[in-house]
Specification:
By secondary structure, the chain is an all-beta fold. It has 2 domains: 329 residues, YVTN repeat-like/Quinoprotein amine dehydrogenase (Methylamine Dehydrogenase, Chain H, 7 Propeller); 88 residues, Macroglobulin (MG2) domain (Immunoglobulin-like, Sandwich). The protein contains 1 helix and 35 strands. A 4-stranded antiparallel beta sheet has the order 1-28-27-26, with no helix packed on it. A 4-stranded antiparallel beta sheet has the order 2-3-4-5, with no helix packed on it. Strands 6-7-8-9 form a 4-stranded antiparallel beta sheet, with no helix packed on it. Strand 18 and strand 19 form a beta hairpin. It is globular, with a radius of gyration of 23 Å. The relative contact order is 0.15.
């Protein structure tokens, strides 16, 4: 029993601060220290990531941008001439030389606007056809490709200020009010996310606005969470499937899932761990992995917890990573992404892949079954199947993410296997078991009585 129990370290890669599972490693940007993360990031590929100092916590007299072209080994810190006193709301990187940034003027003296660089951030040119005059506030800039993009803004003149471009931003055209649903009283907007030809953004009325034609026309789904939830964050993995989480108000930290592009939403159980939601993103290259991150508890009327947490299965189960403050990260793949932290810190997600890579042939044939019986008191069986000879690791973790057992850690031939896991001296409660075969990773929940 004791020998088998040693093999039961089954779930260590999935959980809180486990060194075997993908962790955030620290990089530095040279930005001024901050009590809360201010850097907004846009990952382009495994080597290139753009960033700019964002809004929300500290007024920025001389805004700066950062750029890495070597995977984060070095970060180039650059002043942004002509953007003094403005604050970044979003960044869209195209490659190592070209990026766009949406900026807002907190004084409303101007409308901030959209700026583009084509020389690696050395100079930024305002694209003046978007957000002219004073009183506009750009929110989220997004490009579907090198030419086609959109930028959402706060309401102005009674309807959402949204622009589209088909020539890389040389010309921007405001979407007419007739193509956008009527504005809810007192509403204002938040962050957005895109997939395919679709883009979604949230608003303070707990609504989700959606376009399926690159911003030309819009629809809305209202009351995603019961009022007064106020705010939500959302992420979509494709044109149909996404998650939303509330992060402010009486309905804080609730999760809903959509499988029809955001038209309807179904409530899921709330994540069992901190952090509170500050942002949620889909992890590219995974079958259904999303990550929630949160900044420090500054200015929130409700208690919040900083940290990062992810789900490998579209919001069914959640696995904690750390309790450090993170602004919303940007991932290029399920192996590589970056997130801003406090005090001149940039974190890089590096090493173990998040979720399942659908491109791996193993993922189409590896299966992990639910343990039986479940719940159980002393012993349960776990069954899995592998299509080819592979290194197999099966581990078990407690609800806090601490590794409690390794059930399997060896090379195995193709075939189906059933192994026993004995609870031993483990206390009753919820645990997780995780199967790793190559890049395939799947987690399921078990309960000890």
């Amino acid at each position: 029993m004791k020998i088998f129990k040693l093999l039961s370290l089954v779930f260590s890669v999935l959980c809180f601060s486990s060194p075997l599972f993908s962790q955030w490693t620290v990089q530095h940007s040279g930005l001024p220290n901050s009590q809360n993360p201010t850097l907004i990031l846009s990952a382009v590929d495994s080597n290139v990531c753009w960033g700019a100092q964002g809004d929300g916590y500290n007024l920025i007299a001389n805004m700066k941008c950062v750029l890495t072209t070597d995977g984060g080994a070095t970060w180039n810190l650059m002043d942004m001439p002509g953007l003094s006193g403005l604050q970044a709301t979003s960044v869209a990187g195209l490659n190592a030389t070209t990026a766009w940034i949406a900026v807002s003027d907190p004084t409303s003296t101007t409308s901030g606007g959209i700026f583009k660089t084509t020389d690696g951030g050395l100079s930024w040119i305002k694209q003046s056809s978007a957000f002219p005059g004073a009183g506009g506030h750009p929110m989220q800039i997004y490009f579907f490709d090198a030419n086609n993009g959109l930028c959402t803004g706060q309401p102005r003149n009674g309807y959402w200020e949204i622009y589209t471009t088909s020539d890389g931003g040389t010309n921007w055209t405001r979407v007419p009010s007739a193509s956008i649903p009527v504005l809810a009283s007192g509403d204002f907007g938040g962050n957005g996310t895109g997939a395919g030809n679709c883009f979604w953004f949230n608003s303070a009325s707990c609504s989700v606005y959606r376009t399926t034609d690159k911003g030309l026309t819009w629809s809305v789904s209202r009351n995603i969470f019961p009022q007064p939830a106020f705010f939500l964050e959302l992420a979509f993995k494709d044109t149909l499937n996404g998650l939303a989480i509330s992060y402010y108000g009486d309905d804080i930290n609730k999760i809903s899932r959509s499988t029809d592009g955001g038209v309807t939403w179904t409530r899921l159980p709330a994540p069992p761990f901190p952090p509170s939601a500050g942002g949620i993103i889909y992890i590219p290259g995974s079958s259904g992995t999303y990550m929630i991150t949160c900044i420090k508890n500054i200015g929130y009327p409700e208690p919040t917890s900083s940290g990062s947490i992810y789900t490998p299965d579209d919001g069914v189960t959640w696995i904690p990573v750390d309790n450090l403050a993170h602004r919303s990260p940007s991932f290029f793949s399920n192996k590589i992404g970056w997130s801003a932290g406090c005090g001149d810190t940039i974190f890089k997600w590096h090493g173990y892949p998040l979720g399942i890579n659908p491109q791996n042939p193993l993922n189409r044939t590896v299966t992990l079954s639910q343990n039986y019986p479940n719940p159980f008191s002393s012993s349960t069986s776990i069954q899995f199947r592998i299509p080819a000879s592979s290194k197999v690791i099966l581990k078990v973790f407690d609800i806090q993410g601490s590794e409690v057992a390794t059930v399997v850690d060896e090379e195995k031939s193709a075939g189906s296997y059933k192994v026993n896991f004995e609870s031993g001296g483990l206390s009753s409660g919820i645990y997780y078991y995780r199967l790793q075969v190559g890049n395939f990773v799947q987690t399921k929940k078990l309960c000890i009585l």
